[in-house]
Amino acid sequence: MTLNLCVLTPNRSVWNSEVNGIILPTNNGQIGVLPNHAPTATAVDIGILRIRLNDQWLTMALMGGFARIGNNAITILVNEAERGSDIDPQEAQKTLEIAEANLRKAEGKRQVIEANLALRRARTRVEASNTIS
Amino acid sequence: MSCTSNSVFRVSSNPSINLKPSISIETKFNPFHQLPYSSKPTSRFQIKCTIRKIRERLSTVKNTQKIAEAMKLVSAAKVRRAQEAVINGRPFSEALARMLYHINESVQLEDVDVPLASVRTVRKVALVVITGERGLCGGFNNAVIRKAESRIQELQKLGLDCTIISVGKKGNAYFSRRMPSLFVDRFVEGEGFPTVKEAQTIADDVFSLFVSEQVDKVEMLYTKFVSLISSDPVIQTLLPISPKGKVVDAYGNSVDALEDEFFRLTTKEGKLAVERLKVGKRSELELHPLLEFEQDPVQIIDAMMPLYLNSQILRALQESLASEVAARMNAMNNATENAVELNTALTMVYNRKRQSKITEELLEIVAGAEALRPLD
User: Is there a single domain that holds both residue A92 and residue A59?
Assistant: First the structure.
């Protein structure tokens, strides 16, 4: 029995095939989903999605969204998703440094909100490109 | 031969083509008809130049024609890609709209307090204006800018403050000139195809403006792709989002995504045509009755609203791009046709001049030979 995982972004479908299990980063921590999971709807935080496929774990950086777990069918709707293997580690590290610098420079409620979001996204990308386990 | 040096060729102007000299109707249809030396009362333009100049002009027009035709073909290819991008984004927006609808159904009874849907008394309005990056697209950018101006006037008459977020180089250029009298929040420049990152930048900006209560309402002005020939600038209310997921126009007309139709570029009898397919309202309720919410429904809706915002903005960007490219295709098509006409006119004039020059020389030679013949 395998799960059918569907990861959708506004401009394309990133993943649409069967998996053995996933670990989903939500606002309340990480949840693992195996076949025959109870139907659940959850918000997805900016974090790393781990996909288990044939005893191998793949990573994907998710930039926040929503997930719905149905009858062995998971639909994840995110603003942006990148496969860990597609992210260039150096470039991700540079983006992280820029984001940190921006946060230090930020003034005012608006800029702080924006800078924080950018920082979290950059951090997720760096983590996704590093952990290949 | 009643031929004199033909340095003046009168052409009559075709009233439907502004300021473009064209052959008089007579000569066009009767190529063997004698040249109208007598001045036509409707003539306004004269091609009064030497053969060399006409040759130069001919080559210029040929070049321009080639360029215009190339741009037309490129734009035709881009329209197809733009429309494919919209189709690729369909699964996302459909799934999102469905889930939003379902989740709202189950939280109907509770008092949902979502920051992005909070309706406040409107004092300040932000207007996101989406224009194109380059010119040569007919009246596209002008239509958008005119609509933006009229909307700003309306809002100012109502006593509301207006902030602009300008997307696209053309709009940026315009609004930067209006800077002192109009407050522009941010200039966004796109790079080719609209990406999620761009939509994210705009969405972040709009989000922070709205949540920090600097504005109370956000509207978006973009060009809706109606058909290959016509496109319409529309104003859509982005924030506050109505919890039902219905998207409403600035004037209260529903621009619902659930009932949307999308266009498809196909060929009909060898010509490009646009097919519109309506997306029917999905009535299948896949919501499992035992669906558990991992978090508070409020938090879940909170997470979905930015997604919705993002996808709306991205769709607007994509439609704008498709309209711009279609407008460019049309403009270049017209330019090519005009160039062909101009080419014909100039070629005619060139040939006439050439022939009359030859005749002149012949006459001189013959007359000279006659004069040199020994008197009998």
Answer: no
A77: which chain B residues are within 8 Å (Cβ-Cβ)? Answer: 92, 95-96, 99, 304, 307
In contact, B133 and B193? CB cutoff 8 Å: no
Q: What pLDDT, in 10s, does the model give residues A101-116?
A: 888 888 887 778 778 8
- Residues B90, B262 contacting (CB under 8 angstroms): yes
Pair (A93, A79) in one structural domain: no
Domain with A106 in it: 87-131
Which residues in chain B have their CB less than 8 angstroms from residue A66's CB?
96, 99, 300, 303-304, 307
pTM of the full structure: 0.72
The arithmetic mean of pLDDT across residues B52-58, rounded, is 91
Residues A78, A101 within the same domain: no
Tell me, yes or no, whether A49 and A16 share the same domain.
yes
DSSP secondary structure string for all residues of A10-63: TTEEEEEEEESEEEEEETTEEEEE-TTPPPEEEEEEEEEEEEEETTEEEEEEEE
Which amino acid is residue A94, in one-letter code? K
Pair A114, A124 in one domain: yes
Of A20-29, B86-95, B175-184, where does the model show the most confidence? A20-29
The per-residue pLDDT for range B90-125, each reduced to its tens digit, is 788 878 877 777 776 666 655 556 666 677 788 888
- Cβ of B307 within 8 Å of Cβ of A8? The answer is no
The answer on A127 and A111 residing in a single domain is: yes
